[in-house]
Design goal:
Elements lengths: L19 E3 L2 E3 L6 E5 L6 E6 L3 H18 L4 H17 L1 H12 L3 H21 L6 E4 L7 E9 L2 E5 L7 H13 L2 E5 L5 H13 L7 E3 L7 H10 L3 E7 L2 H11 L10 E5 L4 E5 L5 H13 L9 E7 H18 L18 H16 L3 E4 L14 E4 L16 E7 L2 H8 L4 E2 L1 E5 L3 H10 L4 E4 L14 E2 L2 E2 L4 H4 L4 E9 L8
Parallel strand pairs: 7-8, 7-10, 8-9, 10-11, 12-13, 12-18, 13-16, 15-16, 18-19
Antiparallel strand pairs: 1-2, 3-4, 5-6, 6-22, 11-21, 14-15, 17-20
Helix pairs in contact: 1-7, 2-4, 2-5, 2-6, 3-4, 3-6, 4-5, 7-8, 9-10
Length: 507
């Protein structure tokens, strides 16, 4: 145990599980096949998980289906207590979860622990929402007094939760917390790069008393994931699919959920897809606050978040000062390295392919006239490391203007007028998040309302919170996660109309 790269660092080694979870038990693949998980900071093997097939996926679906018949009728307070206990266990084991998360995803330990706390907040939030899923009484409009209309909210059924690698803890709890609070059961399909965080979370849910079959984990290699996805989207027992990931994959899953094949079904779908967030700084902005917001929104998780600022639009009056200050702070404060090492502020990207894409954006921009103020190259112990980079003189013909980099590269565009900034910001198929910095409250509000996005940060680079609805418009998807709206994604509204009692005259 002492030589294992993860186990030796855990207080509770039993949280590192190299299996999948079906019907209340940790299991291996019937085929015996596994896939390796590598640490992107050093390319070392962390461990292996079962490479499940469609057969195991169907077993998990059946387990969730069987559990739903009883779990849907549990008292909301009981579901609240389960979620609260799960929250307490996640917080108590936050350090171990952070170690596992850093090993397989690469983000620094401090940031990983921050994600674990953020992940736990969804369990706490939805534990409080579970007992407050209310219906309505509705006056009958056509025949007042003749009948009574009542609505009740019911859990939609078995849910497939397909989660990404960039937030392997928070994306699970944000979905599963809402689903369980509503009374649904679930199959979690974590990314092939980050299955161990999912397993540790579900083990803590088991310890919290989660009933058998309510939460299942289907692990699979990246190569085998499409077959698992097809099984989840085609099963008549699955009634809801929630996916966070790329727009291309989201569109494919939505087509599959529409049942355009013989025997296909129609499922409720929520999709949180790609982003290309604009970050707008006006001349009258608090420049230090704007730089701080850019550091957070652009470089968090080494730029690997869907709400990262991807296009930084800086008004001409402060362009030079802002770009110099941003570059100076990146140069002075950021330390690139292994996320498990003290002092590291930014870890590797998830793999060399992600780094190659970020590097290609830098090279394309430089060839077309951009200037590198800091960073600009791939460097580190593995090919997954990219220096935090600030580029100026970015123009609309560069790839970074239209493609999501998903890496630590800040490209700064210059603009002159508010109308120009809005036109540039909205000139994309994506509409997830945006950021606006201005001391003029009227302009800030006006611009926020004019942006074609689902979320706007006004004078802040942080917009994610369990209490705030998270989601986008256009090709960034639909549906909302977190907040009071998040639980609605896992429920259906049933209308019950009670006919008026007939009163017969006795005269």
């Amino acid at each position: 145990m002492s030589t294992h790269p993860v186990l030796s660092k855990l207080k509770d080694a039993s949280l590192f599980i190299e299996k999948g979870h079906i019907d209340g038990a940790w299991v291996t693949a019937a085929s015996g096949k596994t896939f390796d998980v590598l640490n992107p900071a050093n390319d070392q093997r962390i461990g292996a998980c079962p490479d499940f097939s469609v057969a195991e996926t169907n077993r998990a679906i059946n387990a969730a289906h069987n559990a739903f018949s009883s779990f849907r009728d549990t008292a909301p307070r009981e579901r609240a207590r389960l979620l609260r206990c799960w929250y307490d266990l996640v917080m108590a084991n936050a350090d171990d979860l952070a170690v596992v998360l850093t090993a397989e995803m690469g983000k620094p330990l401090a940031e990983a622990r921050g994600e674990v706390v953020y992940a736990a907040s969804f369990l706490e939030w939805f534990s409080e929402e579970a007992p407050r899923v209310y219906g309505d009484t509705v006056p009958a409009g056509n025949r007042p007094g003749a009948s009574q209309v009542v609505t009740v909210r019911e859990p939609i059924g078995v849910c497939a939760l397909v989660t990404p690698w960039n937030f392997p803890a928070a994306m699970i709890t944000r979905k599963a917390g809402a689903a369980l609070a509503a009374g649904c059961t679930a199959i979690i399909k974590p990314a092939g790069e980050t299955p161990f965080t999912a397993n540790a979370l579900v083990e803590l849910a088991r310890r919290a008393g989660m009933p058998r079959g309510v939460l299942n984990v289907v692990t699979a290699s990246t190569a085998n994931t499409p077959a698992i996805g097809a099984a989840l989207t085609s099963s008549p027992l699955v009634h809801k699919v929630s996916f966070t990931g790329s727009t291309a994959v989201g569109k494919l899953l939505m087509q599959q959920c529409a049942g355009n094949t013989p025997g296909g079904t129609l499922k409720k779908v929520s999709l949180e897809l790609g982003g290309n967030a604009p970050f707008i700084v006006f001349d009258d902005a608090d420049l230090e606050a704007a730089v701080e917001g850019a550091l957070i929104s652009k470089f968090r998780a080494s730029g690997q978040t869907c709400v990262c600022a991807n296009r930084l639009y800086i008004q001409s009056g402060v362009y030079d000062k802002f770009s110099a200050r941003l570059a100076e702070r990146v140069r002075r404060e950021f330390v690139l390295g292994d996320g498990s090492k003290a002092g590291t502020t930014h870890g590797p990207l998830i793999h060399s392919r992600a780094a190659a894409k970020a590097e290609s954006h830098v090279h394309d921009a430089v060839q077309k006239g951009a200037k590198v103020l800091v960073g600009g190259s791939v460097t580190g112990a593995t090919a997954a490391f990219v220096q935090p980079t600030v580029l100026t003189n970015i123009t609309s013909d560069m790839r970074i203007a239209s493609e999501e980099t998903f890496g630590p590269v800040a490209g700064l565009f210059r603009f002159d007028t508010e109308a120009e900034a809005l036109q540039l910001a909205n000139s994309t198929e994506f509409g997830l998040a945006a950021y606006v910095f201005s001391r003029d409250v009227h302009r800030a509000w006006r611009v926020a309302r004019s942006l074609d996005v689902g979320m706007v940060g006004l004078n802040t680079g942080i917009i994610s919170d369990a209490a705030a609805p998270f989601g986008g418009v256009k090709s960034s998807g639909f549906g909302r996660e977190g907040s009071k709206y998040g639980i609605e994604e896992y429920m259906s509204v049933k209308t019950i109309t009670l006919g008026a009692e007939r009163v017969q005259s006795r005269l």
